[in-house]
Amino acid sequence: MTPRALSADETLSEMARVLRVEAAALSQMAGELGEAQLRAVEILEAMRGRVIVSGVGKSGHIGNKIAATFASTGTPAQFVHATEASHGDLGMVTPQDVCLVISNSGETSELADIVTYSRRFGIPLIAITRKAESTLGAQADVVLQLPDAPEACGIGMAPTTSTTATLAMGDALAVALMARRGFEREDFKVFHPGGKLGAQLMLVDALMHVGEALPLVAPETPMAEALLTMTAKGFGLAGLVEQGRLVGIITDGDLRRNMEGLMSRSAGEVATRGPKVIRTGSLASEALHEMNSRKISALFVLDSADRVAGLLHIHDCLRAGLG
Questions:
Q1: Residue 302: which H helix or E strand, with range?
Q2: First and final CA of the chain: distance in angstroms?
Q3: Which terminus of the chain is less hemmed in, N or C, by CB atoms within 10 Å?
Q4: What's the pLDDT band for 192 if we cut at 50, 70, 90?
Q5: By three-state DSSP, how is residue 236 classified?
Q6: SS3 sequence, 252-277?
């Protein structure tokens, strides 16, 4: 291996060439979608078990990611290394499953046992390979053929274009299944409860204050009593309710605007009518955006019948990692 002194421009040019080669392969693959890809999606959609993804080497690494993508988007999946399958892990594969086997050449010898097992027990076999006429392709129920495109590396041998194309095909299958099943953001949240992503998909229902914690008063409540409620509940505001429905809100701003004769008034005389609210089932991130854009610190949460279900404070969102 002889090091080469590449200039900054030459280095960036080489990186750009790689991206163009791989992008061209993806574009070619998109243009060649057809009956095979549709059949693969239909098989996966009808599956009662899991997608068993298998491969070795770089295909195995890509297969791991494809299995993870399926699992996180509502399609049960598991990666089974082909070599481990030959040493007992075939017991993980059931007749309710679908095997998705990856091999660029279609001649990877380590795949023989899992392919044979799928044929023996009538388990649907989907192959991702560049050569449809290969041993793997000939055994498969459906062949998802990769484009006959050059590898992007300088010597044309390291798996680059082929692994990118394989990964993209896995993504295409997973996203197509999402669309057919009506998989939504709220469903995604179920599989991603932790980390920043989990926080971004958290619902207001999980953060809002409810029941006795809510600062609620009736329109006829004297302001002296309303002030006690605002102080005791600690949110710096009170909701004006009639028959369980929010009709107004009292904030510090309303108190300042009504200082003269404040104690002689009722809550209904001081409150601002028609306050901004948010619905149960809404994303907490949407509530935070609303509070930031309106420069307010809290939102009442209403249910589908317009009854007060809770109160969300901006501090609740920040503590949950939404800031």
A1: strand 298-302
A2: 49
A3: N
A4: low
A5: coil
A6: HHHHHHCCCCHHHCEHHHHCEECCCE
Beta strands in 59-120 (DSSP E): 77-79, 98-102
CA-CA distances (angstroms) from residue 150 to 78, 245, 248?
Answer: 30, 66, 66
pLDDT at 42: 96
Query: What pLDDT is stored for residue 6 in this prediction?
Result: 84
**In this structure, what is the dihedral angle of CA atoms 313, 315, 317, 322, given to the nearest 10 degrees?**
150
Instruction: Return the closest-CA partner of residue 54 out of 92, 23, 16.
Output: 92
Give the helix/strand (H/E) hosting 240: strand 237-242
Confidence of residue 80 (pLDDT cuts 50, 70, 90): very high
Task: Give the pLDDT mean for 300-309.
Answer: 91
Q: What pLDDT is attached to residue 189? A: 60
Cβ atoms within 10 Å of 114's Cβ, excluding its own: 26
Contact call for residues 166 and 62 (beta carbons, < 8 A): yes
> What tens digit of pLDDT does each residue of 98-119 get?
999 999 999 999 999 999 999 9
Domains and CATH numbers, the chain: 12-183 (3.40.50.10490), 204-319 (3.10.580.10)
pLDDT at 190: 60
Q: Report whether 298 contacts 237 (CB < 8 A).
A: yes
Place of tokens 């920043």: 196
Listed in order, strand segments (DSSP E) in 68-181 are 77-79, 98-102, 125-129, 142-145
